[in-house]
């Protein structure tokens, strides 16, 4: 297993020197995957965002650290953009090469960035949370096109539907879920609560988020609100499929259904005990994946029953899924007194899932993980370092050379055996 805090990783010295000349801080982790559901929405916790067709690292011996940066402060959540990654840093957003981490561009912002939550891409436009509001940045021109403060600190990832941005803002004990028009940053509507508000998901015309002991649905255009009261506090961002909404609450993973008007469908709430500190779930192919202090759990999402538990993976980050090489689920969890990147391979219902440890991290408290379309995995650890981890590519030349060497060895052994046989034959008299 490789350790991501080592200082002698490929390209690290070049990348560190280059980035530190540009910014007093440096970098990492995981942004919302910028895969949109159609062209109209992005950044919500749905399958179109958290399930990727990328081919990703899946065995330790085939995992490589492409590049890394040094420790830093005031680094935000990176967002993938084509063959690059956008990294909020200080009061700027850097565009870094996916291949080597070198800086391709830098855009100055009107204020410091928000370090805890992710922006979202809309074409070539990044909607980036700042210390008190949002910025829109056009990366075709490298300019800030709009900025507005909303009177508090941004407290959720940003999501987008048809040019409308959704995010929460915390101001003291009060928190508001906001909808803003990204063309001019005007506030369209907001929902206010005396509770923490989670990042959002979307189902049909309704944006869904947790607010204390309520699951809240809002019509994405007019903000019509419906509160679904629960017995326990919603502790994770919800995940929505076409038919149901999944979320963590009170040491359990919950599932319920909504009517077409965003109201609760009676008697559809189902709970499955999954343990303390249950992470935000993700659902793919009728399987629900989550991790808690008691292990990595795979549930039948229809009946909400645990089918498998991998007890060696605990305290992990919110899972993400790729299917480029079969269904593989990634989470960063505890590993002895440190952390590790785990890959869980879930072949089918008939086979036991297996896990591998791809890489180790010194401290991942508060970290995030994201995956580019090319399968590069980005990590920001607790020390503000950014790592780009990739799958080692097969070299056709190396394979050919190995085959040639193997063939030469076989031919050599064959010739040697013939010489031995000939020598033995010469030992006997001929009549």
Give structural notes.
The protein is globular and about 100 Å long. The strands form eight sheets. A six-stranded mixed beta sheet has the order 1-33-32-31-30-3. Strands 2, 13, 14, 15, 16 and 17 form a six-stranded antiparallel beta sheet that branches. 11% of the residues lie in helices and 42% in strands. The chain is mostly beta strands and 431 residues long. The relative contact order is 0.15. It is built from three helices and 36 strands. Mean pLDDT is 87; it is low at 7-39. The longest helix has 31 residues, at 396-426. The protein has helices at residues 12-22, 47-50, 396-426, and strands spanning 2-3, 41-42, 51-52, 63-68, 79-81, 84-89, 92-97, 103-108, 120-122, 125-129, 133-138, 143-149, 153-154, 159-161, 164-171, 174-181, 186-193, 201-203, 206-211, 214-219, 225-229, 239-240, 245-249, 252-256, 270-273, 282-284, 287-292, 295-300, 305-310, 320-322, 328-335, 338-345, 354-361, 368-371, 377-380, 386-391.
């Amino acid at each position: 297993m490789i350790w991501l805090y080592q200082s002698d990783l490929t390209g690290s010295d070049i990348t560190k020197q280059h980035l530190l000349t540009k910014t007093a801080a440096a970098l990492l982790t995981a942004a919302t995957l910028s895969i949109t559901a159609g062209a109209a929405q992005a950044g919500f916790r749905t399958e179109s965002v958290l399930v990727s067709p990328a081919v990703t690292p899946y065995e330790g011996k085939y995992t490589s650290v492409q590049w890394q940066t040094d420790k830093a402060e005031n680094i935000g959540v990176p967002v993938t953009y084509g063959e690059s990654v956008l990294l909020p840093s200080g009061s700027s957003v850097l565009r870094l090469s996916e291949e080597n981490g070198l800086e391709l561009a830098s855009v100055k912002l009107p204020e410091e960035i928000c370090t805890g939550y992710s922006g979202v891409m809309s074409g070539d436009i990044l909607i980036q949370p700042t210390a008190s509001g949002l910025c829109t940045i056009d990366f075709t021109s490298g300019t800030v096109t709009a900025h507005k403060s909303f009177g508090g600190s941004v407290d959720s990832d940003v999501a987008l539907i048809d040019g409308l941005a959704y995010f929460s803002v915390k101001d003291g004990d009060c928190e508001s879920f906001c909808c803003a028009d990204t063309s001019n940053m005007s506030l369209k509507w907001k929902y206010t609560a005396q509770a923490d508000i989670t990042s959002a998901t979307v189902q049909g015309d309704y944006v869904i988020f947790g607010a204390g002991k309520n699951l809240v649905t809002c019509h994405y255009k007019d903000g019509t609100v419906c509160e679904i009261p629960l017995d326990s506090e919603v502790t994770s961002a919800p995940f929505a499929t076409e038919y149901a909404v999944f979320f963590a609450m009170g040491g359990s993973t919950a599932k319920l259904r909504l009517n077409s008007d965003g109201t609760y469908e009676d008697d559809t709430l189902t709970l499955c005990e999954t343990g303390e500190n249950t992470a935000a779930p993700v659902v793919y192919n009728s399987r629900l994946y989550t991790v808690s202090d008691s292990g990595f759990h795979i549930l039948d999402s229809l009946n909400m029953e645990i089918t498998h538990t991998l007890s060696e993976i605990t305290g992990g980050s919110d899972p993400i899924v790729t299917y480029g090489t079969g269904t593989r689920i990634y989470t960063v969890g505890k590993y002895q007194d440190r952390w590790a990147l785990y890959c869980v391979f879930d072949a089918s219902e008939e086979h036991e899932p297996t896990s591998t440890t791809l890489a180790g991290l010194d401290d991942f408290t508060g970290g995030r993980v994201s995956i580019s379309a090319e399968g590069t995995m980005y990590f920001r650890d607790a020390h503000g370092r950014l790592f780009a981890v990739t799958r080692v590519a097969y070299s056709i030349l190396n394979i050919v050379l190995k085959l040639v060497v193997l063939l030469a060895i076989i031919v050599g052994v064959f010739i040697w055996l013939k010489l031995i046989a000939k020598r033995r034959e010469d030992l006997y008299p001929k009549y």
